[in-house]
Amino acid sequence: MIELFNLSKNLILNNTRLCSYLTIAFVFLFSFIFLSAGSFSLPLIDRDEPRFAQAAREMLEKKNYLVPFFNGEYRLDKPPLIYWLMIFSYSLLGINEFSARLPSILACSILSVILYRFSSSYSPRFRLFVPLSFICSVQTLIHGRLATADMVMVLFVTLAQWAFLNLLHKKSWSWLFVFWISLALGFLAKGPISWLVPLFTFILFRFVFWRKPSSILSLYFIPGSLFCLGIISLWAIPALIETKGLFWKIGMGEHVIRRGMEAFDNRPFIPFYYFISPFLSLFPASAFFGLFVETLRKKWSMDNAFLLSWFLAPILIFSFYATELPHYIMPGFPAYFLVIGQAISETKPTRFSILFALFLYILFFVFSLLILFFGFAAGPTVDNPLKPVFLSIGLIIFLLSLFSGAMMHYAYKNSSRAISISIMATAYITLNCVFGFLAKDLHSLSLTSRISPLFKNMPFSSQNYAWGYTEPSLVFYSNKIWKWDPLSSQLNPPYFSLRQETETSLSKALLNVFQGKKQPQLAQKTNFSVDNLPPPGKWGEGKIEGLNLGRMSWVKIEYSYQY
Q1: How far is Cα 165 from Cα 449, in angstroms, rounded to an integer?
Q2: Element (H, E) at 133
Q3: Would you tell me how many other CB atoms lie within 10 Å of the CB of residue 292?
Q4: What stretch of H or E contains 501?
Q5: Model-level pTM?
Q6: Residues 439/35, Cβ–Cβ less than 8 Å
Q7: Helix, strand and coil in the chain, % to nearest 5
C-alpha cells in the first residue's frame, strides 16, 4: 500500500513538473514568435537601431571587442554587452535585421519566463496572465523587437530585483550571486541605471512605504560591490586605457549627466510626463490600473511595498531628468504586471476598477476606429502610400484591446472560458499576420530601403556624402563610411552622393490629405520603387522619395554616383 502511494505521488510530481516545463516553453515560444513577427523584413529604424547594429558589425570586422565604432569613429554611448550579443547572433545567422534584433527578442522572451516564475508567489491561479500581459503591452512590443540595449538591461534589472526581494526575506548564497552578477551585467548593458533602480527601490521601500527595519546585511554590500566592480573592470579598465579616458568622459559625462541637465535634441520638457506616459506604454494592461491601486490598498504587505517602490523608482529617477523618453521607465514595468497578476488572482474588482478599465478600453477602441476611418478616408493607396500603415496600426490597437479584454473575461467568467480562449488565439494569430504586413509596408516605404540596391556595387574606396538626409541607416545598409553635410561639394570619383530636396512631416502632410488638399510628396504616384531603380553601374543619377523612419517624415532626395 505504501509503495502504491509513493508511486502515485511520484507520478503526480512528475506530471506537475512536466506541466510546469511545458508552460514555460509555451510562454517562451508565445513571446518569441510574437516579437519575431515582422522582424525579418522590418528595416532598421533610424536612428538608434542602425547605430547599434553597425557598431556590432564594425567591432566584428575590426576584431576589437573592447571599444565599439560607428561610421569609422568611436561610439562610446553604451557599454559593450549588447554588441557582444549581436556579434554572437551575426556569427550564427549572418548580418541582417533579424540577427541584430535577436538579442532583444531573446532577452524579452526570457524575461517573460522569469515573470511567470516570479509571479508564482503572487498569482498562482493565473500566472500566465503576468507574462502574456507584459508581452502584449505597447512599449514591450516596440522595444522587445528593437536592436538596442534596453531589453537586455531590463532583463538584468528584473533578475536583480527578484534576487533583492528574496534576500530581504532570508539569506541565500545563490540569490546573492544572482543579485551582484545581474547588477554587473546590467551595467555592461546600459550603464548606471541598472544600479540606480535597485538603489531607489530600497530607499522608497525602507523610508517611505514600509518603514520597518529591513536588514540588508544579507547583501554583503562591500564584498558584493567589489565582486560586481571586478566583473565590470575586466572590460572597463582596458577600454578606458585604449580610449585614454574618453569612454568615461563621453559615455558618462555626455550621455548620462549632460542628458540629465540638457534635453537631448532640444526635446521639450513636459511636467509630470512620466505620470502620463505609462498609460500609453502599458496599454492594454494600463486598463488594470484600478485593480493595481485596489490590490495595493487591500493586500498591503512587505512584498507589495517592494513592488510599488520598484515601479515608482524609475519614475522618480527620470522625473528630474531633462531628456524625457517613454521607454526610460521600462525597468519598473515588471513590478506593475506582478501586482496586477496578484489582483486577477486575489482581488475582486470594485466599481472604480471596472469603470476605469471600461473607460480606457472604450477610449482606445474609439481611437483605433478613428485611425482605421482615417486610413480608409485618406483615399486610394496610390495617392496615399501610408494608408496600409495606418490601417495596420489601427488594427493592432483594436486587436490588443480585444486580447486583453478576453484575458479579463477568462479570469472572471468561469462559465465561458472557451470563448475567451478562442478570442485570444484568434487575436494572437491575426496580430502576428498584421505585424508581418506592417513590416513589409514600412520596408517598401523606407527611403533607405528604396535606395539601398544602389549600394551593392559600391567600391570599397567610394567616398560617400549626404546633405540633409544624414540617417545612420545609410551606414548599415551600405557598410561604408559616410560624410554628413560636408562643407565642400566637390566630388571626385569613385563617389556616391545624395542631397535632400524636400521634407514634409507626416502629421502635416496627412492632415492636408484628410482635408482634401493635394500634397506633392504624398498625393502623387511615386516615380521610383525598388523594382524600377536604374541598375547599378559605373555612373548614374536620379531622384527618389520615401519615408524617413527616424524623423517620421516624407523625404525626397536626389542622388548621383560615379565609380
Answers
A1: 47
A2: helix 129-135
A3: 25
A4: strand 495-505
A5: 0.92
A6: no
A7: 65, 10, 25
Interval 42-83: pLDDT, tens: 999 988 999 999 999 999 999 999 999 999 999 998 999 999
* 297 Rama class: left (phi>0) / alpha (psi -120 to 50) / beta: alpha
Q: Which three cell numbers stand for residue 418?
A: 472557451
- Give the chain's radius of gyration (CA, Å): 25
Residue 261 or residue 226, greater confidence: 226
Which residue from 194, 193, 195, 198 is spatially nearest to 321, judged by alpha carbons?
A: 193
- The answer to whether residues 41 and 439 touch, using CB atoms and an 8 Å cutoff, is yes
What is the structure's pLDDT at 62? Answer: 93
- pLDDT score recorded for residue 525: 39
Contacts 24+ apart (CB under 8 A), 305-309: 305/205, 305/209, 305/210, 306/164, 306/165, 306/168, 306/201, 306/205, 306/210, 307/335, 307/338, 307/339, 308/204, 308/209, 308/335, 308/339, 309/200, 309/201, 309/202, 309/203, 309/204, 309/205, 309/208, 309/209
The helix/strand/coil state of 80 is coil
- Highest mean pLDDT pick, 8-22, 218-232, 253-267: 218-232
Question: Model confidence over 275-290: pLDDT tens digits?
Answer: 899 999 999 999 999 9
